[in-house]
Design goal:
The chain is mainly alpha-helical and about 450 residues long. It has helices at about 1-15, 25-35, 40-50, 55-75, 90-100, 105-125, 125-135, 140-160, 180-195, 200-215, 230, 240-245, 250-275, 285-305, 315-320, 325-345, 350-365, 375-390, 395-410, 415-420, 420-440; strands at about 85, 160-165, 170, 310. The protein folds into 2 domains: about 1-220 and about 245-370, no CATH class; about 370-440, no CATH class. Strand 2 (about 160-165) and strand 3 (about 170) form a beta hairpin.
Length: about 450
């Protein structure tokens, strides 16, 4: 009786029945998202350690910031989107800011905090909502499809099915390698379970491959020593006064720009795939989502990690049936549980997460059917968007290229007014941004 009362209260708050989900699907979806994101528990500290942040401290900061961001998103914004320190910006902090510019990691974290503070201000004044609402909705399906290709490329690369090639950029890797074979088997397992409508097909596939990798010795388990001193060595070490130096404004801008448009791309793609947008393409509680993203970045910097952002791997939870913030809460609680159990969580290998990413990427590609290919300004800009996201390894770059192309084609067709003044401004800013990157 008590269990039914609790479920009823959760349903009243999160509304999963109204959205066609169930309590079990939400929990399963949150666990699936966590399984596809668990690599960040080890990968992020490995990168930040090269910047001088102690490994155990970065690992603790990763778990805490991911738990905070995901719980905040689930409980307040009530959307099934998980957050964690973002890949790409952690490498930028380590290898460009600290390694390339000689900035110490404490000052770099101060710049991350400032970018989050600017985000928060832009959200409060309504600028971020205005930007998202002014984005050409005709490009939204392309954004989802481009991110699907991006996820698939990441998965294929992580297990060596796709490898770099100096002559052709990329080429086919060794399909007979153990990692590739496990990933292919995992993909077939997930696809077959999904075809049979087995609940939690993605999570079953991830766990099955993880067990197989452990049994064959491909996923070594190396326990780490833990102590309170080691875990908290990076907390409250950020240097905001030093980051306010005029020479770091360009660094703050990069953190700001990439997270801004990566988040918008993720939010658009995930809510669209989950059917959470209304008929006008509007996203409920959008301001809350953007506020969570900003506050999570500031919290992450205080904890001792790089920019915290919304994760596109949340689409794996969507594929498992998640539709509400209860899934994000589940993911956040699992990240919290991962703090003392990080060595075990880190044992989830690339061979297990790769098939999940590839499968979810395939599901997200279905949005291409919604692109108006007969309208040249929409079709060409959409094509450039979905192509640029995986090829430039950046959701932000894909968005920028798509908006520039859309705006230019609308103007050339004499339909500039249809695009809107804010799209014109965004296109100009994106052009200036690319010019700045080329000159730097």
């Amino acid at each position: 009786m008590m269990g039914r009362d609790i479920r009823g209260a959760l349903d009243d708050y999160f509304g999963f029945t109204k959205l066609g989900s169930t309590f079990e699907r939400e929990i399963l979806g949150g666990a699936t998202t966590f399984a596809t994101m668990a690599y960040i528990v080890f990968v992020n500290p490995s990168i930040l350690a090269d910047a001088g942040i102690p490994f155990q401290a970065a690992m603790a900061a990763t778990c805490i910031s991911a738990a905070f961001g995901s719980l905040f998103m689930g409980l307040w914004a009530r959307h099934p989107i998980a957050l964690a320190p973002g890949m790409g910006l952690n490498a930028y902090l380590t290898y460009s800011v600290v390694g390339g510019m000689g900035v110490d990691w404490q000052t770099a974290l101060g710049a991350v905090f400032l970018s989050g503070a600017v985000f928060l201000v832009l959200t409060v004044v309504g600028f971020r909502r205005k930007v998202l609402e002014s984005m050409p909705q005709a490009l939204f399906p392309a954004i989802g499809a481009g991110i699907g290709l991006f996820l698939a490329l990441i998965g294929l690369r992580n297990v060596g099915i796709i490898v770099p090639n100096d002559a052709t950029l990329v080429s086919l890797g060794d399909l007979s390698s153990p990692n590739a074979l496990l990933a292919i088997g995992g993909l077939l397992l997930i696809a077959s379970l999904q075809a049979r409508r087995v609940p939690g097909a993605v999570l079953v596939g991830v766990l099955a491959v993880s067990v197989a990798a452990a049994a064959t010795g491909l996923s070594p388990w190396t326990p780490l020593s833990w102590s309170w001193t080691e875990m908290t060595a990076g907390a409250f070490q950020l240097d905001i006064p030093a980051a306010l130096d005029i020479g770091l404004l360009d660094i703050v801008f990069v953190f700001l720009f990439v997270d801004f448009f990566d988040t918008l791309g993720t939010v658009v793609a995930v809510t669209n795939k989950a059917g959470l947008q209304d008929e006008q393409g509007r996203i409920p509680r959008l301001d809350r989502m953007l506020t969570v993203d900003a506050v999570a970045t500031m919290t992450g910097a205080v904890c001792g990690t790089s920019t915290v952002t919304s994760y596109i791997e949340s689409a794996a939870g969507i594929a498992a049936g998640a539709r509400t913030g209860l899934a994000a809460v589940t993911t956040g609680l699992l990240f919290l549980a991962a703090l003392p159990l990080a060595p075990l969580v880190g044992a989830i290998p690339n061979a297990a997460t790769a098939p999940a990413l590839i499968f979810v990427g395939a599901l997200m590609m279905t949005t291409v059917r919604d692109i108006d290919w007969d309208d040249s300004s929409v079709g060409i800009s959409s094509f450039l968007t979905l192509l640029a996201i995986p090829l430039t390894y950046s959701i932000a770059n894909g968005l920028a290229i798509g908006v520039i192309a859309y705006d230019a084609l609308k103007i050339l067709k004499g339909e500039g007014r249809e695009a809107g003044w804010l799209v014109h401004i965004l296109a100009v800013l994106f052009v200036l941004r690319f010019a700045y990157l080329s000159a730097s």
